[in-house]
Amino acid sequence: MTGKNLQQFCTELGADEGASAELAVDLKLAAGTEAVRMGVAAREIGTLEIIMIGLAGVIGAGIFVASGIPVRIAGPAAVLSYLAGALVVIPVMLYLAEMEAAWPSTGAFSDYANRYLGPLMGFVTGWMYWSSGVLGMATEVTASALLMHWWLPGWPLWLFSLFFSLLITGINLLDIRGFTRIEGLFSGIKIMALFLFILVGLTVLSGLWPGLAPVGTVNYFAYGGFFPQGVKGVFASLLLVIFAYSGIQVVCMTAAQATNPRHTIPRAVIGTGLTVTFLYTGAIFVLVGLLPWFTVPVASSPFVTVLERLRIPFGSHLLNAIIITAVLSSMNTTMFGVTRMLKSLAERHEAPRFLLKTDRRGIPTRALAASSIFLSIAVILAYLLPQKVFLYVASATGFISLFNWAVITITYIRFRQKLPRFKAPFTVPGYPYLPYTSLLLLLVVVASVPLARGQIPGMVSGLLLAIAYAMVFFLFVRRRYKATA
């Protein structure tokens, strides 16, 4: 289809003359750049498979390992914290899904920020996402090694870390069908584990578990009430709750491999968001009902503690295996996202051009190799840093997610302003009030960070990282845009 025909097609869809010209460019980029670069055959995963990839990216250490920290900060009201986290993140992902429906892209929000907010924001958000992904994977592979060490204490931790790093790299070398099959299996295990935990917990709370007296609602209200730390505790816990949701944007980074992304991506975002919200809030509701909030461990998995209290045979071993699977699955999906982001940056001349290399199946092998090398360096640093590194990295990752989500929201506002009357296949309701409300909620989360000790260093680190990338852009990258202007 020629550019003239594209513009006429857009006008027929309902866009005005200026908007149709703008959209015609987007459609050419979507239909040309992505289809040619990735290959039509690469578009072979559907809505359910994308949902499973999204769940694999979200459900990991943030809920299985780190959920004890928000509970200790907010008490039983942590249930509301996780519900609030969903109310923050789901609308933002819907904004991204609408832009993906108009312009599928492997670089997702970084590409859109580059187009609608300028090269600086595209550069910073892309590299921030890549950096937070690598740091997050380092903590996850370290956590996996420590969990394996519980079974095999005589084996060195570095050996487990090396094995898991190579395993994740190997899985990401599979074609998209093989990758989705493995992630579908991992996601199924995690979903079933959380669902069974909720089911068992409700059985115990109601007094139907054999050999145990009913727990009832005593732990929700007996120790300082539902808000033992006040409403302030809910706000103080939000940043770490955001960390638990931080992998959800990988859903929109599958657009280049999705069948009919204009329809599959929005459906996948909604499906992933609702499933995660149910599993997270349900699991935390059961957790704070079974354990007094001030006894929930922060240095180990609270889910393991619950199973130990219930004396389920081999329960701790089974859950240890499930947590390892969950953490590796999240790490695997993160690697999928960061390699494609790195390749997208290289396409815009914002990363070394040699990272553009893909194999015949469209897998960015050099971007994968580079990410794996930096993962190894980050793992070494994780062993050298203090034990509080997990809290620092989780806080930094949460802040970076907030930063990127704010950029997505602002980008979406600009997107809608440029194409005000375009009848897209998917449109988020409530514009312009909903995106501005999202920005307000994101600011509230940032403002609440100082309410909890230990979160400020992570937030400051994330802010300094953004400033550092902005300086790199002005010193080395901006001249390339000036030369091509």
From TrEMBL:
UniProt cross-references to PROSITE patterns, sorted A to Z? AMINO_ACID_PERMEASE_1 (PS00218)
**Protein transport as UniProt keyword:** no
Provide this UniProt record's keywords sorted from A to Z.
Amino-acid transport, Membrane, Transmembrane, Transmembrane helix, Transport
The root-end lineage is:
Bacteria, Bacillati, Bacillota, Clostridia, Eubacteriales
Q: Name all Amino acid permease/ SLC12A domain ranges.
A: 50-453
Query: Where is the protein localized?
Result: Membrane
Name the membrane topology term.
Multi-pass membrane protein
**Tell me, which GO biological process terms does this entry list?**
amino acid transport; transmembrane transport
Its chief place of residence is membrane
Task: Locate the transmembrane regions by residue number.
Answer: 47-67, 73-96, 116-135, 155-174, 194-213, 233-256, 268-294, 314-342, 363-384, 390-413, 433-452, 458-477
Q: Which organism is it from?
A: Desulfofundulus thermosubterraneus DSM 16057
One GO cellular component term: membrane
Protein name, UniProt field:
GABA permease
A Pfam family: AA_permease
Q: Does the keyword Protein biosynthesis apply?
A: no
